[in-house]
């Protein structure tokens, strides 16, 4: 299993090594032109080290003869999304973000997920059991956290709920994250937190579905078997450059990040199929409203 920024660092390193090979330069020669030690080139090319924006620009200047403007834009964007904690624990290549204050509480994989979510242009998600974190009420988030992490001290539960709510700021950012979510009907009927909490959560879903940047659909039980039964997933898309898209699969103790073109195409096709079988947005809101009234 790979962390998000770690995957990006490796991909960036592979691209930079390919460019160096095309120039005919050895790593030592490239480092000398850049004014670096050879070990720095090695760490970047193997993905063991992040790279600052000014460093990537300098290195691309060294490889200027074989770098197109489009490649340069891609690699600069890739270096920004690859930034994260380096081997020494410091932050590489980007300013301090709010989630860094929780580094003692949040696993690295969760911080990587939040980083991807915060920099994405759009997210497409299929959920089978719980309301997506970006759409949860505080009470529902608390109930989910207690159920998933039983026995956790209350102060830590409070902190994790605060993180969940802070993540929702991407829906109010400028520009906001464009969210397309398909929820299995089981998500709406599972009584998490009790009837009162669930009714409030359902009403919140109806409200947030009215936002222009949110498309919310329900996959009814009547559909029967569907592609989403293999498990929930999220597809993050990034501004201007499709090559940066990534699929995230959650497991009990880890997350898997998929960036191969064939994986992205497969999950994108699966999402389109699932979305086509789901109720239209208005019908979905009507169903959620009726369930809220009955809760």
- How far is the N terminus from the C terminus? 40 Å
What's the count of strands?
Answer: 6
CATH architectural arrangement of the largest domain: 2-Layer Sandwich
CATH level 3 topology of the largest domain: Endonuclease, Chain A
* CATH domain class of the largest domain: Alpha Beta
- Low confidence ranges: 84-95
The strand line-up of the biggest sheet is 3-2-1-4-5-6
Helix count, per DSSP? 12
Sheet with the most strands, sense and barrel status? 6 strands, mixed
Helical residues, percent: 40-55%
Output the radius of gyration.
21 Å
Query: H/E order of the elements?
Result: HHHHHHEHHEHHEEEEHH
Percent of sequence in beta strands: 5-15%
Structural class: alpha/beta
Instruction: Summarize model confidence as the mean pLDDT.
Output: 86
- What oligomeric state best describes the polypeptide chains here? single chain
- The global form is elongated
InterPro entries: Cro/C1-type_HTH, DUF5753, Lambda_DNA-bd_dom_sf
Protein name: XRE family transcriptional regulator
GO molecular function: DNA binding
Task: Kindly describe this structure.
Residues 16-72 form the HTH cro/C1-type domain. The protein starts with a helix and ends with a helix. The longest helix is centred in the N-terminal third of the chain and has 20 residues, at 4-23. It is elongated and about 70 Å long. A six-stranded mixed sheet has the order 3-2-1-4-5-6, sandwiched between helices. With 295 residues, the protein is α/β, with parallel strands linked by helices. The model is unreliable at 84-95 (pLDDT under 50). Helix content is 50%, strand content 11%. It has twelve helices and six strands.
